Amino acid sequence: MTVAAFRLQLVAAVTLVLVPFALGAEEGAFDRTLSVTGPIQLDVRTGSGSIEVTAGASGSVEVHGVVRARSGFFSGTDAAEKVRRIEENPPIEQEGNVIRVGGQATDDDSLYEGVSISYRIVVPAETALVSKSGSGSQTLGDLAGPVEAAVEQEEQVEQEEAR
Description:
- By secondary structure, the protein is of the alpha/beta class.
- Helices cover 19% and strands 44% of the residues.
- It has one domain (25-159).
- It has a 6-stranded mixed sheet with strand order 1-4-7-3-9-11. Strands 5-6-2-8-10 form a 5-stranded mixed sheet, with no helix packed on it.
- It is globular and about 65 Å long.
């Protein structure tokens, strides 16, 4: 077999494997605004996706999420259905001034298979933050509270100094 023939077979094989995933890809988004009073504690986690947290007005937390999903061979839920369900009920919990975003603890773990959620969050400057991403960048800045960023895999972490 010649090198050119091998390359052609390799390209054909890769195309046959990747095209179904590309065709089954869906994207959606959600926005939530939460009311808070005083300093808050924010815990944000994503297995796959970026996290951006910046300071804004006091009294509210704005969460914007971008959901990307792909259908897999073994998944019981197609990508469009996953995106729709997450848009309707995003992984956000609030108990007073304690807010958890991500960390998809749910009865239906298959809902998050093949899903990436990126978060852009605007919080009061007096926020204590814990941020963890398994795969994605983290941009954290302008916060007066303590900030803890963790990387579960190799990724880029950018932290701006609190002003």
